[in-house]
Amino acid sequence: MRLLLNQGLVFRGHHEDESSLNKGYFLEILSWYVERCDKIRDLVLKKATKNDELTSHKIQKDIIIAGKIETVKAIMDDLNGDFFALLVDESCDVSRKEQLAIVLRYFNICGSVVEHFIGIVHVRNTSTLCLKEAIVDYLAQHSLSLSYVRGQCYDGESNMQEDLRGLKTLIQQKSKFAYSIYYFAHQLQLTLVAVSKKCLEVGELVLSISNLLNIVVCSFKRMDYLRESQAEKVQEALDMGELETGRGLNQELGLARAADTRWDSHYKSFKNFISMFGSIIDVLDTIVVDARTLEERAKAKEYLSTCQTFEVAFILHLMRDILWITNKLNTSLQKKKEQNIANAILLVEVAKKQLQKLREEEWDSPIDKVSAFCVKYNISIPNFDDFYVNSGRSRHKIIDWQVQELNARFNEVTTNLLVGVACVNPVDSFFSFDINKILMMVELYPDDFDENIMVTLKNQLETYIVDVRDVDERFSNLQGLVDLSETLVKTKKHLNYPFVFRLVKFALLLPVATTIVERTFSVMNLIKSE
User: Fold this and answer.
1) Per-residue pLDDT of the chain (530 residues; tens, 9 = 90+)
2) What sequence ranges are listed for the domain DUF4371 (predicted)?
3) Phi, psi angle pair for 403, to nearest 5°
4) How far is Cα of residue 312 from the mean position of the Cα atoms in its chain?
């Protein structure tokens, strides 16, 4: 049973009678074990006492529930009334009921950060108030209070993202210091694409590309033809001196669809679509002539007409340029090491300045670039008198929305938290340590660090950095905040510097590293969905 529960596998099969070839995981594994273990052969299955076979669905369910209760109790004992972070995700199960998965992130007695799934809660609807009540009630069942929450995180892929943002605000009204900075990193590029879709032309383009790829890459034959066409065009460009040769250059490109689970997929989708535009047109031309069904031929002809316009070419290049600017930032934010945070903050300012430069750029450069693209692929170039103004407004709006989104995600509070986390990090012999910046982070927790504690903390920090950087060699090769926390506990220095340890604890309770949080959200796989 423990094996099946740990692996998240169902116990029962569709047919469990003697004639069944597959009786389900529980009976099949138990039968396999009986054949190999003499000690239990006479104690289980048919040889067990009548009421002790453990094959009844109700009995198995009771045992599972008992195991769940004991497991959660052990987690609560491990938490021991300390501060924790709240990680929540939602999904609709196969019976179309909304379910919330709740995970706690906290410190154990060894100073390690652990994340434990504690349960699934059914909610009547996904309104902000209903979600908050469900979480509060579930925490109360385990004698937990929102006042001890020092971080919160919600999955941005959810179909109720706006409600979750409202939930974050409601939680923070009850616990002012339950900061949520995961949204700053999570799927930044996906959000920027979503913001751009508020422009009708961009929304239509994203939809058209998705539909076009469905017909172009739906068969191996078409994919082979696409590769052959692209290889021929690359060779022609090499022969004409338009491309350089070298290691890593001119590699085969793919046309994978943009997806919410791949953070850079939209940028690659636009970039590769432009690079393979000629080959895509060749495949569509072939489909128009050779497709078996009238529907496929008609769709291919429609897509040919749609994508061979100056406006589509212009939006393609604009979105590629915008997402190229934010892609470096997005990539930096996905890395799990805390030392990348300081660089990410700098990249935010770089991205905003580059976007502003793109906004203020004269029309000659983008128009010339798109016009050259259109000439290459025999796309008509219109008179710019009308298009010039309309596209200019769309271009400005799209860029303005990107900057607004970056400003919203990287506000003063978020920036101070992130910089503080980076300064506490012990990597490279505490290279980033800065007392003033750390204290700016601490000021965001006034109930946990009052004026008297702040004075004591500053004194502790001054002594602490000399101790761990210059004196105690056990702190010389630490690779991150988790190593620091564990070493502080192991060396008993968390007792010498209690407020410094509290600071480290709060830094680690902030769910900053996207990779860690994504692993946590994998518990949604336990919910049977469609």
Assistant:
1) 778 777 777 777 777 676 777 777 777 777 777 777 777 767 776 666 666 666 777 877 888 888 889 999 999 999 999 999 998 877 776 667 788 888 999 999 999 999 998 988 888 887 888 888 999 999 999 999 999 999 988 765 444 455 556 788 888 888 889 988 754 555 565 566 666 666 777 778 878 888 887 887 777 788 887 888 888 877 776 666 555 454 444 444 555 555 444 445 678 888 888 888 888 888 889 888 888 889 889 988 988 888 898 888 988 888 888 888 877 777 766 655 554 666 777 778 888 888 888 877 755 677 888 888 999 899 988 776 655 445 556 667 778 877 887 887 778 888 899 889 989 999 888 988 999 999 999 999 999 999 999 999 999 999 999 999 999 999 998 988 999 999 999 999 999 999 999 999 999 998 765 444 455 555 555 555 55
2) 2-165
3) -65, -40
4) 30
Q: Which pairs count as long-range contacts for 279-285, CB under 8 Å and 24+ apart, including other chains?
A: 279/226, 279/229, 279/230, 279/233, 280/212, 280/216, 280/226, 280/255, 280/307, 281/307, 281/308, 281/377, 282/225, 282/226, 282/229, 283/216, 283/222, 283/225, 283/226, 283/229, 284/212, 284/215, 284/216
In angstroms, how far is CA 153 from the centroid of its own chain? 11
Return d(Cα 105, Cα 117) in angstroms, integer: 9
Closest by Cα among 344, 184, 327, 187 to 263: 187
Round to whole Å and give the CA distance between 355 and 396: 10
Q: Which two tokens stand for residue 8?
A: 């998240």
Sign of CA dihedral 163, 164, 165, 166: positive
**What would you measure as the largest C-alpha separation in the chain, in angstroms?**
90
If 0-12 CB within 10 Å is exposed, 13-18 middle and 19+ buried, where does residue 434 land? middle
Distance CA 128, CA 167 (A): 5
Q: How far apart, in whole angstroms, are the C-alpha atoms of residue 483 and residue 494?
A: 13
CB neighbourhood size of 97 (10 A): 12
The answer to whether 10 touches 24, Cβ cutoff 8 Å, is: yes
Cβ atoms of 25 and 9 closer than 8 Å: yes
Distance of alpha carbon 106 from alpha carbon 78, whole angstroms:
9
CATH number of this structure's domain 69-181+518-526? 3.30.420
What is the per-residue DSSP string for 164-201?
A: HHHHHHHHHHHSTT----HHHHTTHHHHHHHHHTTSHH
Nearest C-alpha neighbor of 515 from the set 268, 284, 340: 340
> Which residues of the chain are in CATH 3.30.420 domains?
69-181+518-526
Taking the alpha carbons of 108, 114, 119, 121 in that order, is the dihedral positive or negative? positive
CB-based contacts of 105, cutoff 8 Å, min separation 6: 84, 85, 86, 87, 113, 114, 115, 151, 509, 511, 520
